[in-house]
Design a protein that fits this description.
The complex is a heterodimer of chains A (213) and B (174). Chain A is built from seven helices and two strands; from the N terminus they run E-E-H-H-H-H-H-H-H. With 213 residues, chain A is mainly alpha-helical. Chain A folds into three domains: 35 residues, no CATH class; 92 residues, no CATH class; 62 residues, no CATH class. Chain A has a two-stranded antiparallel sheet with strand order 1-2. The longest helix of chain A is centred in the middle third of the chain and has 44 residues. The N and C termini of chain A lie far apart (57 Å). With 174 residues, chain B is mostly helical. Chain B has a domain of 108 residues. In chain B, helix 1 packs across helix 4, helix 3 packs across helix 4 and helix 7 packs antiparallel against helix 8. The longest helix of chain B has 33 residues. Classes of the chains: A mainly alpha (213), B mainly alpha (174). Chains A and B meet through helix 1, helix 3, helix 4, helix 5 and helix 6 of A and helix 1, helix 2, helix 3, helix 4 and helix 5 of B.
């Protein structure tokens, strides 16, 4: 389905679709740019991303589809989206997809992107769940689940290692991590611990303003 | 009533998973296994593993929990609830991106949150490991091998999970 090419203007902020009404006087309309896809086109891409990417792997597929193949966003805009996803809670890839949808088509785009991204995973997970609840008790499969158990412990440790390496950069942060572990051992709710550490960080760990010589 | 509770629990989890989908594990364990008893420890671990071999976000394990609690409706509610907070925040923050990135408080908040997240993940690994691996040196060895593959050789998590399942099957028969 051919996309109707919207006229665009270019500013220092990036590329924007031409507004219908008031056109900024000092901006010259550019050549047609391929941005601003239709909602079905967005949905189609997100279905593909959701069906072929695993976990963080979705970020790569999303970039391939939205930036490299279709040029809906510039490399820089996509990188900005990833930075935002890192700041906010939620899976990086889901946040990035919502950002892409919002950037291109506002709230409707964001909603379509989220739902389309989730549909393949939801359907497959539902099937696996029903299968598991039916056959999970089959004695022959016990070994499989014990093996999965070992894998999950390893996965959690691997993520802890990766996150720890990138985020434990000062003594203060080490102390915070140790304190959080202590709190967890005392059965304080993880939500409370994480938010409390965030508040401590916002109060005490703000980056020093750069001194200009 | 159950549906509302399901929604609230997963919306709360969705609002605090800083640092990626895996971070949900300690939260789900606390709320879903220890607090409400919706899943047994084993079912919870299996739900995580299934989420891992399903394409899409890891958080999709919420579907499993929702289905277990309240069938198809529960699955839909839990899934939407867990993604709703990050959806709203991302769309609302997209315009403020430049300001957010410059804000020292935001940076400080994340500097505080991430160490806590690392601690929560360690705690989750301890809890899950203690209930199963501790009593079986072969499983312990399998976990170590899996960790080595993930961290040292950067093997994709999907393959590690599938491989560990197969290894477990063979160990049990042998």
């Amino acid at each position: 389905m051919p996309e109707t090419a919207a006229r665009c203007w270019i500013s220092s902020q990036g590329r924007f679709p031409m507004p219908d009404r008031d056109i900024a006087p000092d901006i010259v309309p550019e050549t047609p740019c391929p941005s601003r896809p239709s909602l079905p086109a967005l949905a189609q891409v997100m279905l593909k991303v959701g069906a072929t990417g695993f976990g963080m792997g979705m970020v790569g597929v999303l970039q391939q589809e939205a930036v490299t193949r279709r040029a809906w966003l510039s490399q820089q805009e996509f990188a900005d989206g990833l930075a935002l996803a890192n700041l906010l809670p939620g899976p990086i890839a889901v946040d990035a997809a919502v950002y892409v949808g919002y950037k291109l088509r506002g709230w409707a785009g964001a909603t379509v992107c989220l739902l389309a991204l989730l549909i393949p995973a939801f359907v497959i997970m539902l099937g696996l769940t029903i299968g598991y609840l039916h056959y999970g008790q089959v004695p022959r499969l016990h070994g499989v689940f014990r093996g999965l158990n070992a894998a999950v412990v390893a996965l959690v440790l691997a993520v802890a290692y990766r996150l720890g390496k990138s985020s434990l950069k000062s003594t203060a942060q080490g102390v915070l991590a140790a304190g959080a572990l202590g709190a967890a051992l005392l059965h304080i709710s993880p939500v409370t611990v994480v938010l409390a550490c965030g508040i401590i960080g916002a109060l005490l760990l703000t980056p020093q303003p750069k001194v200009v010589p | 009533m159950n549906l509302l509770r399901l929604f609230l629990v997963f919306a709360k989890i969705g609002a605090v998973v800083f640092g990626g989908g895996f971070v949900m594990i300690p939260f789900i364990q606390r709320e879903v296994v220890q607090h409400y008893g919706w899943l047994t420890q084993q079912q919870f671990v299996d739900a995580i593993a299934l989420g891992q071999i399903t394409p899409g976000p890891i958080l999709i394990s919420a579907t499993f929990v929702g289905y277990k609690v309240q069938g198809l409706t529960g699955a839909v509610v839990a899934t939407l609830a867990v993604f709703l907070p990050s959806f709203l925040m991302t769309a609302l923050a997209a315009r403020q991106l430049a300001r957010l990135r410059r804000n020292p408080r935001v940076a400080g908040f994340l500097r505080g949150v991430l160490p806590a997240v690392v601690a929560m993940l360690l705690m989750a690994a301890i809890t899950i490991g203690r209930s199963t691996l501790w009593f079986d040196w072969r499983l312990l060895l399998l976990a170590c091998a899996a960790l080595l593959l993930l961290v040292r050789f950067k093997v994709d998590a999907v393959y590690v999970v599938i491989g560990a399942g197969a290894a477990g099957f063979l160990l049990e028969r042998g």
